[in-house]
Amino acid sequence: MPAAKHPDYVCKLHKSIYGRKQSPRAWYSRLSDRLHQFGFTAAKSDSSLFVFSQDGITIYMLVYVDDIIFASSCSRASACLIQLLGTSFPVKDLGPLHFFLGIEAVRDPGGMSLSQSKYAMDLLCFTALTWTTASQSLCRCLSKTSCLQFRALH
Fold it and tell me: For 25, which DSSP code?
């Protein structure tokens, strides 16, 4: 927050962000080291993805800032992982995944479906568009034939 009298001043932060005592890089390093001790390996394609695969149990863990989501082939392994992480870090289990980074996760008997429809609708509401006005705007850019085909789909 710049001050009008002293625009070149720098403010000193007295309280840590998110209640962490160490910097985010140090926290991530500590978490990464602990996961390696548990047998996880970091994915080469994404530094925030860790994979555990031993004795028929597979766990994928994704770390985003201070949020962690994971998927496991074994519910007992999930419970054990949460317990082990709790010995080194403050852990709060928020239960089954519903939303993460604008992606909605819906469970069904066949597995899990991922969708960004809520995110897309929120964007449309934010920009004051509805499907009607969106299709009218789109139809101005398209030929009449394309417009009729688009309306038939909705």
Answer: H
What's the CA gap between 29 and 82, in Å, rounded?
A: 18
Contacts for 36 with CB less than 8 Å, ≥ 6 apart:
42
**pLDDT tens digit sequence for 42-92:** 999 988 999 999 999 999 999 887 788 888 898 899 889 989 988 888 888
- pTM over the 0.90 mark: no
Q: Which residues pair with 41 in a beta bridge?
A: 51
How large a percentage of the chain has pLDDT more than 90?
Answer: 19
Q: What angle do CA 56, 59, 64 make, to 5 degrees?
A: 170
Contact yes or no for 78/69 (Cβ under 8 A) = no
Q: Residue 61 and residue 82: Cα distance in Å, rounded?
A: 12
Question: Is 59 buried (19+), middle (13-18) or exposed (0-12) by CB count in 10 A?
Answer: buried
Residue 142 in contact with residue 150, Cβ under 8 Å? yes
Q: Which two tokens stand for residue 93?
A: 């289990």
**Would you state the structure tokens that stand for residue 118, as one six-digit string?**
């809520």
Q: Where are the domains of the chain?
A: 1-95, 99-154
